């Protein structure tokens, strides 16, 4: 008898953020002083998996993707292993590990980014074509940063669609996240043919607007709670098999094939409590993936996603704000009590 599938494998982007605090932004050709430096894992795969790992649920977790044969690649691998994340499908490439140099101005907090695509640009779908594991969900992110998945396919339209179909045929549930791009034609060309092979689509309101061609904010800048449901419904019509989740800083909307839909506002955070916003979307995604994996209802799933995002804001990096599931659930319960008076 085949054991039931259990656990989450995340595939796609892995990188290192090298964060430098500088005294001020220099004029071109001038010198700035680095006051402090630190490195942290980044990219969807480490962010989602390490947030899930720190929930301490015992859920089997695995990473798939490419790192270089260099110090950054070893740093990513060691961080994942320290969080008990299976690295059997983490391959070493001849290219350098993808990385971002982040310059943070001490005077005003403004950040400037210098990114090297590195081996993420060479992510090969063959990594997943040969996948055999007992994980229940395979989550891929970020499509539109993985160039090899955008190539044309004679049968599916795009390589990403073929890959997701093969994963479903193997018995996996598939989840997809994107990166925001200012190129609607490209996004629609790559993503729309893939949606019929996606069980769970988890994206932000900018990405949803790009895919649907709808503006999802009102003229005063607030989320449009009429257009967001329309966008979710349109994405289901485009083929998403189970659930569409659209999130924004103010909250999240979910809709499923059974006709259930709802919006859950984000948890309030005092501005002085926010240490950083890096990885907040990935933290939200991790919470949602856990709820979907556990067959929770939409309300509980979005509440956990919002709580993970809220806790993420406590840290300057994408990981150190993550909390155990019990602490997250206690926070959710306390907020419900406060709200109900």
From TrEMBL:
Q: Which Pfam families match?
A: PfkB (PF00294)
Q: Which GO terms describe its molecular function?
A: kinase activity
Domain called Carbohydrate kinase PfkB: residue spans:
31-320
- Which InterPro entries does the record match to this protein? PfkB_dom, Ribokinase-like
Which Gene3D superfamilies would you find in this protein's record? 3.40.1190.20
- GO cellular component, as recorded: cytosol
Please give the coiled-coil regions recorded for this protein.
none
Alphabetized, the UniProt keywords read:
Kinase, Transferase
Can you name this protein?
A: Sugar/nucleoside kinase (Ribokinase family)
